[in-house]
Amino acid sequence: MKKIDVKNTYDLKIAGGPEEVVLDYEGSDTYGVSPERIKYIKPKLVVKAGDSVKIGTVLFYDKKNEVNKFLSPISGIIKDIIFGERRVIKSIIISSDKKNQQEKITGPLSSDSVKDKSQEDIKKIIQNGGLWSSFIEYPFNRAPNDADNPPSIYVSLDNDEPFLPQSHMFIEGHESAFLTGLNALRVLCEKTYVGMSEKCKVNDPTIREQATHQIIGDYPANDPGVMLYYNKTSEKENDSWGIRAQDVIRIGMLIETGFYPNKRLITVSGTAVEKPMYAWVQDGLPIKDLLSDISDFQAVRVVAGGLLTGQKVLKDDFINYRDYAIHVLPEGREQELLHFFKPGFHRPTVSRTYMSALLKDKEWEMNTSLNGGHRACISCGSCVAVCPVETYPQVTMKSLSDNDIETAMAQGVLDCVECGLCTYVCPSKIELSEIVTNAKNMIAKEVGKA
Ligand code: SF4
């Protein structure tokens, strides 16, 4: 197995991680999905209020990439479609009929028979099964188009961002689905690589032997984009695809059963949660049902996804298509609040400014306070020291402020995996990650990938 030793990573020691206890969540009467929360798509509705749907009925698709479909996680009736400003589709609300009726998407296939299918067959199954957005096409982090064929596919077995589910928790009981999903990926592309963290706790030898690379390093070493950065040998590989192991399992479940897999293992964590833990939930579950112990939502901030890369959600939101973690932080006391992924620690230090640098194993409690205001860049180099793909975020920011995209590209802006670490460590509280991502989006538009 090849080793990848990622140079710049960061061990985020944060309190409130989940215990390895799994709850099965009760169903709700009402579910929902939020197209507004899905990045880089233009949703086109297929249903209207009053329609009956089954698990797996298409609710909407991306107008710019019609094979990227999003399916109903529940059977019932479309109760309401909520629009925001400029007719943005905020949420589709579904009343459950509690019958769990399912649309048949494909005939069930065994792990071995998948290998006999064509690339086109596998694409169609994944697209019709609503799982096409499990793939990220680099460098612009969007779902691929139907005509795209990946030069290589990178699968990350492990998650190192707090507090996404750990591989030994989500693989157990789903080994077969993982192997089936992996076989399907290998039909899509022979060069399918699997990265496994050196800290991986999966014991099953059949799973472990799928790994082609051992990944050494902390967050975000196990990001598929980081593996691509270290493994690629030619420019042609820059538009490879990435996917997480949990999504490979979902693809395997779809293939083995022929139905849309509408349940997922998530973590519910954070110091504002009474009992941080794992939970099996149905997609579309209301956040307020999941967090029924929280009595005052004004006093907390709920983040869906990883702590540095997730999205702020409200109690009236739902578990959405890409949510594998829910984190609940106490709100800070400062008036000025910024983006959620820049929370103020009590006094942790990346640049070793504080005595806390001596407390190596301490887990820090986070809240949403910034502990101070914005300042100009002081060229301290903290962002460069943590960037896993060796870009120069502070220099890129300056190039971009001069509209010098070419220099930014030469500095590797397209390799950015949007991990958020540069923003997190910046002592001047500059939204570096957002600046770099915006630059990538500008380039995506220019090359017709937006
Ligand atoms: S530029 Fe920032 S967000 Fe992008 S990979 Fe480097 S540290 Fe992560």
**Number of alpha- plus pi-helical segments:** 12
Sheet/helix structural class: alpha/beta
What percent of residues adopt helix (DSSP H or I)?
A: 10-25%
* Largest sheet entry: 6 strands, mixed
How many strand segments?
19
| Domain module tally | 2
Oligomer: single chain
Q: Calculate Rg over CA atoms.
A: 21 Å
Average predicted local confidence, pLDDT:
91
- Give the spatial strand order of the biggest sheet: 1-13-12-11-14-10
Note the overall shape: globular
Strand content: 15-25%
Bound molecules: iron/sulfur cluster
Distance between the termini: 36 Å
Low-confidence stretches: 336-340
Description:
By secondary structure, the chain is of the alpha/beta class. The protein has 2 domains: 258 residues, no CATH class; 92 residues, no CATH class. 22% of the residues lie in helices and 20% in strands. The chain contains 12 helices and 19 strands. The strands form 4 sheets. The protein has a 6-stranded mixed β-sheet. It has a 6-stranded mixed β-sheet with strand order 2-16-15-19-17-18, with no helix packed on it. Helix 1 packs across helix 3. The longest helix has 15 residues. The radius of gyration is 21 Å and the shape is globular. The two termini are 36 Å apart. About 1% of the residues have low confidence.
SSE diagram, text form:
Blueprint: E1 2-5, E2 22-24, E3 30-33, E4 43-45, E5 52-53, E6 58-62, E7 65-71, E8 76-83, E9 89-96, H1 119-128, E10 136-137, E11 153-156, H2 167-171, H3 175-188, E12 192-197, H4 205-208, E13 213-216, H5 224-231, E14 241-244, H6 245-257, E15 263-269, E16 277-282, H7 287-290, E17 300-304, E18 311-313, E19 325-330, H8 382-386, H9 393-401, H10 405-410, H11 421-425, H12 432-446
Parallel strand pairs: 1-13, 2-16, 11-12, 11-14, 12-13, 15-19
Antiparallel strand pairs: 3-9, 4-6, 5-8, 6-7, 8-9, 10-14, 15-16, 17-18, 17-19
Helix pairs in contact: 1-3, 3-6, 9-12
The structure holds iron/sulfur cluster.
